[in-house]
Amino acid sequence: MDNTNRSSNGLGGLAQGWRHPRVVFFHMLFKLGALLTYIFCTVFSSSFIINFIVITVLIACDFWMVKNVSGRFLVGLRWWNQIDDEGNSKWRFESRKGGDPPDASESRLFWWSLYIFTFIWGVLGFFALIRLRLSYLLVVVIAILLNSSNVVGYRKCQRNATNQRQDVASAYISSHITQSLTQAVTSQLFRGQAASNNNNNNNNNNNARPSA
C-alpha cells in the first residue's frame, strides 16, 4: 500500500500525500485554532477571562504538540531543556538514527509553519500594542515566547544533528584512510622482506657453487 492510500485513511482523503497525516492535521489544527480564536474571540464572547483561558490553552497545546510530537514525526528531531543538580539549564537534543529520512513535504510544512506563525503573532502583538489592547498583548507575548522557544530549540537541534552526521562522516573517512595507509605500508614491508629473502637465497646459491 503506497503513502497516498495510507494518508487517506481516517481523514476522508483530506491529507493525501502525507506520510503522517494525523500528525500534520493536529500540528496545523492547534496553530490555526489558537490564531483564529485570538482574531475572532471578541465576536463570540466579550469576556476577556474566557477568551484568555481558551486561547492560552490552545497555545499551550500547540507548543506541546510541536515540541513532543510534530518534530519527532515530521523532521525526526526532538529537544528539551534540563536543569542539572547545580541549577544550570542545559539543552538536550535527539535526532532520528537510521530508518527512512523525513518526508520533504512534511519537513517544509514543519519549518515554514514555525517561522510563519511566529511572525504572524509578532505582527498581531504590534497591532495590539499600538491599539493599547494591553490585556490581549499578554496573550500574544505568551504565544510569541512559546513559538520562539520551539524555533530556537529546533534550530539548535538541527545544527546538533548536522554536526553529528559530519563527525560520523569524518570518523569514517579518517578510519578508511588510516586502514588504506596501513595496508599499503604493510604490503610494502612484506614486499621488501620478500625481496631481501630472495637476494639472500641467490647469494647463498652463488657461494655454494664449486669453483671451476
Automatic annotation (TrEMBL):
Subcellular location: Membrane
Gene Ontology terms: biological process: protein secretion; vesicle-mediated transport
Protein origin, superkingdom: Eukaryota
Any one GO cellular component localisation term in the record: Golgi membrane
InterPro entries named among the record's database cross-references: TVP23-like
Keyword Membrane applies: yes
Keywords from the named record: Membrane, Transmembrane, Transmembrane helix
Membrane topology annotation: Multi-pass membrane protein
Bilayer-crossing regions: 109-129, 136-154
Keyword Transmembrane appears in the UniProt entry: yes
Family the entry assigns: Belongs to the TVP23 family.
Protein known as: Golgi apparatus membrane protein TVP23 homolog
Organism in which the protein naturally occurs: Salpingoeca rosetta (strain ATCC 50818 / BSB-021)
